[in-house]
Amino acid sequence: MIRTPLRPLARILAAREKGENPDAIERENIRQRHETMRDRARIRAEGRLFLLGATFFMAFAVVGARMGLLAATEPMEPEVPALAAPIIAERADITDRRGRILATNLVTHSLYAQPPRMVDPVRVARALGAIFPDLDVKRLTRDFTGARKFVWVKKKISPEQMQLVHEIGDPGLLFGPREMRLYPNGAVAAHVLGGASFGREGVASAEVVGTAGVEKVFDGWLRDPANGGAPLELSLDLTVQSAVEDVLAGGINLMNAKAGTAILMDVTTGEVVAMASLPDFDPNTRPAPLTKGDAGDSPLFNRAVQGVYELGSTFKIFTIGQALELGLVNVNTMIETKGPLVWGKYRIRDFHDYGKQLSVMDVIVKSSNIGTAHIAQMIGADRQQQFLKSLGFFDTVPIELVEAPTGRPLLPPKWSEISTMTISYGHGLSASPLHLAAAYATIANGGTKVTPTILKRTAPVSGERVLSAQTAGILREMLRQVVLRGTATFGEVPGYDVGGKTGTADKPNPKGGYYKDKVIATFASVFPSAAPKYVLVVTLDEPVETSGSEPRRTAGWTAVPVGAEIIRRTAPLLGLRPALEPTAQAEVTLVRN
Fold first, then answer.
1. Overall CATH class of domain 94-233
2. In this structure, which long-range contacts are made by residues 132-136, counting pairs with CB atoms below 8 Å and at least 24 apart in sequence?
3. Which CATH code is given to the segment(s) 239-287+297-570?
4. What's the sign of the alpha-carbon dihedral 168, 173, 177, 179?
5. Which sequence spans correspond to the domains of the chain?
6. pLDDT per residue as tens digits for the range 322-360
7. Is residue 442 within 8 Å of residue 449, measured between CB atoms?
8. Is the pTM of this model over 0.70?
């Protein structure tokens, strides 16, 4: 820094020449130097004060912004770091074939307590009992006043319940975030979806795991983050599924049945468009399994897949088809139907007396047990077994449901000649309605085996050929004749050529033998019969039609009307246009030349 002299020589000499006091020059310079130093000190002080003020301002601004952010966000419990693997709570949606939600996730909260932090545990227990009536207040009081430091109160609560718990105002009640599974359509397609529950649980999260149905089969896929949140697309059509369940429920009520099931399947791809089993349940509140009694009485029991029944005369079409394929008979071959047919101690009878003979066509149309048994004798046990095995009646149906392996067909321990005869008309072999639907789809699509699936397919999966296309065409015409003039005339739906076969089987008695007044009634149908696109199987457990003077239990009076109503309701939803009946052309009369 350059310092200015206080007594510059030039100014001192000039002042002396003028007679002035040189000391005044020194005092003036000292004053100016002090003023300069003072100005510099003031500027330096002002800069420091400004910097300090700016620092305080920024600090208060950060604190204020943070306080505002915390005030605007929902309070959350602090997460405690753990050494275990993190819980993955995210789960992909499940949709129907048109992208409509069948299962999704809902963010909710769990409620837990830390008794050491409670102010008044007894009052809290009573207040929680008022909010959640299912809680045991005495047990809560023991837990809150004992030595426990952590107590689960509820695994999931609604926002309204959460607000009521907030109003209790006790610091020992805490909330944890939860992601729960939600089924927005309630009980619709309950047996297909199955349900989900909580697996590993923590305060901050809980994993959602499948417990039944597709939720369990595809549990790993639904929880895999690598799928990028893509939904699982099922083959079901939500609208069709809902219509099938509504009609089936009405049919069970009208026919006084114990239960029932219906399966609607695409004959080309094997896609199950609708699968209903009643009674059912709401997967949002899945009930506990039965611990005693018949498992089939549980609403969790999927009758379409798990139920194995003797399906009666619906099996006759397979016997006729095999005989046609082997060249043993043709449509016009006459078959003996005089009864009863005696084999040892067994007697085979028909529901009506059809005379001495019927053509092969009428054996199906009139549903003759005796005629079908005679044809089965021509086929023989070995060839019958091979054919039924090729249709899938010896194995479980490989559908993507966790319950499917339990629906294994019940085969006779010894396949004797009498077994061959009774199985030909649907007695002595038990299978699920889904087995029957797959076998009828094989006939409907021209003889190629169909593998059912609950997943959406974009193209058919080619299976092995079981029947020739010619034989399959003849069988479809037989099924059409059954509806036109046989045992399933109530199955006719105007505009849609329905073909089908009835089956009425006495229900086995667990104590041995068969009930005299309880049956399993089944209607297996294809439509439109000329070029089938869908198969529908309807099975009713213990139906009784009581509109007449005497109770009627046969499938023609019980299962067939229900199946026809399902077709009438669902065919337009499936995009099938009704065929217009040909009308006579109006005649024109010449009145003037």
1. alpha beta
2. 132/161
3. 3.40.710.10
4. negative
5. 1-39, 94-233, 239-287+297-570
6. 999 999 999 999 999 997 888 888 899 988 888 899 999
7. yes
8. yes
